[in-house]
Amino acid sequence: VRSRLGHALRAKLRAILRPTRVEEDPHDELSFHLAMQERSNQQRGLDPGEAARRARVSFGGIEAVKERSRDARPLRWARTLMQDLRYAARLLRRSPAFTITAVLSLGIGIGASAAMFSLVDQVLLRLLPVKAAERLVLIDWQGPQFAAGRGSGNLLSYPLCRELQAQRQFFDGVFCRHPTGVTLVMGDQPQPVAAEMVSGTYFPVLGVRPAFGRLLVPSDDVDPGAHPVVVLSYDYWRTQLGAAPDVVGRTVLVNSHSMTVVGVAEATFRGVDLGEVPALWIPATMAPQVMLWDPLRDRRARWMHVFGRLAPGITADRARVGLQPWFTQMLQSDETLDGFPKITPSQRAAFLASTIVVTPASQGRSNLRKTLGGPLWVLMSGTLLLYLLASANVASLFLARATARVREIRTRIALGASRGRVTALLLVDGLLIALGGGLLGLLMAPLVSTVLLSFLPRDAAGVDLTSRVDGRVFAFVLLASVVTGALCGLGLVWQAGRLPLMSSLKERSGNTGGGVRLRKALVMGQMAFTLILLVGAGLFVQTLARLHATGAGISTTHLLTFGINLTSTGHPPARQEQIGRALFTALRELPDVESAAISGFRLLDGGSWNGQMTIEDVTRTTTDRVVHFNPISPGFFTTVGARIVAGRDFDDRDSRALTKDEIRSAIVNERFARRYFGDRNPVG
Amino acid sequence: MSKPPDLVQGTLELLLLKIIALEPQHGWAISQRLKQVSRDDLQVSDGALYPALHKLELSGWITAEWKTSYLGRRAKFYTLTGAGRQRLHEEVDEWRRLSSAISRVVRLKEV
């Protein structure tokens, strides 16, 4: 069967690739036949003229036979297409100004759209490369939390993750993870890298396989501090370790805690957070050693994202409804725990009415997606608008040119070309231009994406978005070009079809009014689009300019900030405080420094420690909003140039070690004072 | 491709394959052979012959080659391929099956 197929294929290829040879073939063959027939007729005694005539009669129309031979050949359309392409190419070569304008317009439009699509695709559309990603859900709660937390958004505690693992009727598996930054020492250089603290179920539930070695399993996640093992990501192993073959079994220092590498995860797996590829995975039970913070037994410490894989036949909604009784019960028991904050009855009601939230997480979880989602769609729409503009531009160029071609088209129809053939001819014309534009767009797309990517915050550990053109982007470009080409061509066909046949044949001058209305509409649409885009861009620039003018709200001239991370270098808290104090003193004594201060979170970095706050005033109340805290040293406000409206700045009285019953002091902002103290003076 | 009206549908292909199977032939010889063997009972118009041959060629059952004929003129000779031979077997079997079925029907006696 294969050889037969191969034979047929070769014959067809020959027919397409070498049309001239096959075209001439039957003619020679037929004239040979005629000659032979003529000869045989002569031998039967006919005179030469009659012999030739009879031969022709018995044969029938030579041209008809040739045509039937051609029709019998498969892929006739392909040969016609080649012809049309050659014709269209000749035509385009003859009007280079038109061709260049059209291809450039489309190229810019397609290039920009493809670049945007590539980002939208990577950020918003692609699924996690894991087993049955569509069954993954993110489990979260909604309601006031009154608990200590780290990180932001969608967080639950480690014990809760454990309890959810037991909910077998809803989930095939549940895992949790905490993204963090650690200092990794794998040779002599300490290196800050992104890491994930994960439950032992993480890899099994995601269905990720090791590239080699082994991954973390549930038995790596049993006793706090007892599992000093890590798994490296393929990316890290390849880019930072030069794909060292002997990496398994090596001892590494994670925040100065010594741990053993047991394996490397498969290449396609890059964590569950989009765009942030962790360098290594660490068992969650190692949190006390790695993070110097032990949230493992605290059911209300919010620090982990919990994901579940839905059991067969269970929807996210059913899981949510089914889990709610268990969750409410947990809230009630939480209330009786030690250290639960004092809250008002209405706050209590809100707390007990908290709901569990189960959202599909087939694409993983992403802060990037959350923050970029809106702007990306807006940009994408803007770009598509731009593309539409470019297309309209080209379409109107085509129409203008069509005016010149109407006579040619009419002549073709008058000479017996079928409507289908003429339509195909015009479509091919449009497609050729559009594909040229698409090609240019493909070349431009990576450049545009690179520029776009350079606007993204770079501090996030290993943001993993590429400007590479992949299969999906290519498909997008192809689709865009074909659609545009077809539309341009169809516009032509439509216009040509509207003209009465005779008038255009008779008319010597090419002035035909048929497409004018369409062209006017196109031009009007273009003007409207351009105006919208211009106004939008103007507003955007103005907003940017205003943000620049406003600044940070403090004077930043002569202000220098830097950060150090003592936790990730493994210094215990007491030592960290010593270092901090020493640094602070040293800085203040520098002759070039006017004032210096230390804060727990860097200025304008977005980080904070947050939670509710209990105010013991006339009555005891807990704030109804999350309050952001930042521990600071004396002189902080002087240094950043903020004014203190009432009371005093911290001084050395506030920074000594306290005995048990003394009260620490705090400074609040005006907003806080107004909200919780009203007109009373909060100082004291 | 339109079929010659004087032939049972599909049989032209069988006839051509069979004749070419005997020895490589050019078109004119094939048409002569056909008339001669069938004692002029099977009339294939010369016009229908060539499209049929070209179709067989494109299907990969026969190949064509330009050679000098015995009269010194160049002619296109068709040769059966392996695939064509297999196809011929299939068509012959099919023909036997069909014609014997028809014969059985024709031989039925009225009662």
Which chains make the largest contact?
A-B, 33 and 28 residues
Total helical elements of chain A: 20
Range of helix content of chain B: 40-55%
Rounded average pLDDT of chain B: 81
User: Strand-and-helix sequence of chain B, N→C?
Assistant: HEHHEEH
- Rounded mean pLDDT of chain A is 75
Please state the overall shape of chain B, judged from the principal axes of the Cα atoms.
elongated
Beta percentage of chain A is 5-15%
Secondary structure: elements and pairs:
The complex is a heterodimer of chains A (about 675) and B (about 110).
Chain A: H1 2-17, H2 19-43, H3 48-59, H4 62-72, H5 76-94, H6 96-125, E1 136-142, H7 158-165, E2 171-185, E3 190-198, H8 202-206, E4 210-213, E5 229-232, H9 234-239, E6 251-254, E7 257-265, E8 280-283, H10 287-291, E9 305-310, H11 316-335, H12 345-352, E10 355-360, H13 367-414, H14 419-453, H15 471-497, H16 501-506, H17 516-550, H18 573-589, E11 609-611, E12 614-616, E13 620-622, E14 627-629, H19 636-640, H20 670-677
Parallel strand pairs in A: 3-8, 5-7
Antiparallel strand pairs in A: 1-9, 1-10, 2-3, 2-6, 2-9, 4-7, 5-8, 6-7, 11-14, 12-13
Helix pairs in contact in A: 2-3, 2-4, 5-14, 6-13, 6-14, 6-15, 13-15, 13-17, 14-15
Chain B: H1 11-22, E1 25-26, H2 27-37, H3 46-58, E2 62-68, E3 74-80, H4 82-106
Antiparallel strand pairs in B: 1-3, 2-3
